[in-house]
Specification:
48% of the residues lie in helices and 17% in strands. The strands form 2 sheets. The protein has a 6-stranded antiparallel sheet, with helices on both faces. A 3-stranded antiparallel sheet has the order 1-3-2. A hairpin with a 5-residue loop joins strand 2 and strand 3. The N terminus is likely disordered.
Length: 260
């Protein structure tokens, strides 16, 4: 269970405007809670008094950034979608030099992906120069259990959160290699955490192998991957690529935090 944030921490960040700090904190709490929360949850997590939360929430609702549900809980509002789309575009711009460097180093297509609810969304890509290459449309959403980036992202959650995610989405077989058993998937997550990278061994698409690494320390959860046909992305290639992709993920996290 999340620990309540100290009221002073929620109320003011260094150099911040108190009311804005509080509004952003409430939005972040809602996001961390899965997109919606009750007033009591917001109060417990923020440490703010209920009258203050009421005032802020009314303003956010009035501007479309929060909406009230029939259950009287509050959820992230539709006006955030446009901001999120624009932020994703900017993220792609910031990430592209790192993805392009991966392509230069390894010769295969590089992707950046994030969790979007219970699915994975691809937000940026640098294509391989090979005539036969992997292409995943930016904006495409896939189930996380069968994708290298999805497994890398879920490995950053607790076992309970990761299993709850794949149980909500189901674990359909995209190929005959897709992991469809929750216990086997949990074992795979433990391997990923120990190794520091995930592998999609033809689990999303037949004949495609992918190496994916979580971008640890980034402002939000994301993963970087390199993927290509099995004929080129051999297991020897995987051993060589894994530390290079890990290094790219570290550099990207540093760059994004500097942008923040």
């Amino acid at each position: 269970m999340d620990q309540p944030r100290p009221a002073a921490e929620t109320a003011r960040r260094p150099g911040g405007v108190q009311s804005l700090d509080r509004a952003f904190s409430l939005l972040e709490i809602m996001a961390e809670a899965g997109g919606e929360a009750s007033l009591s949850q917001l109060a417990d997590s923020s440490g703010l008094p209920l009258p203050t939360i009421h005032r802020i929430i009314r303003t956010l609702v009035g501007n479309g950034y929060v909406r009230q549900l029939p259950s009287r809980r509050y959820a992230l509002g539709p006006r955030l979608i446009g901001l999120g789309d624009k932020a994703a575009q900017m993220l792609g711009t910031w990430a592209h030099p790192h993805l392009a460097q991966l392509v230069d180093d390894l010769g295969e297509t590089a992707n950046l992906a994030m969790l979007d609810g219970d699915k994975v969304i691809y937000v940026a890509q640098a294509p391989s120069p090979h005539a036969m290459r992997m292409f995943t449309e930016v904006g495409r959403r896939v189930l996380p259990h069968s994708a290298g980036v999805g497994k890398a992202l879920l490995s950053q959650l607790s076992d309970e959160e990761a299993l709850a995610t794949v149980r909500r989405t189901g674990m359909p077989a995209a190929t005959e290699r897709t992991i469809t058993d929750p216990d086997a998937f949990l074992t795979e997550l433990h391997r990923i955490r120990e190794a520091g990278y995930a592998i999609d061994d033809g689990e999303q698409e037949v004949g495609v192998r992918c190496v994916a690494v979580p971008v640890k320390g980034a402002p939000s959860g994301m993963a970087v991957s390199i993927s290509g046909p099995e004929a080129r992305v051999s297991w020897k290639f995987v051993d060589r690529a894994a530390p290079i992709v890990r290094s790219a993920a570290t550099l990207l996290a540093t760059d994004l935090n500097n942008q923040s």
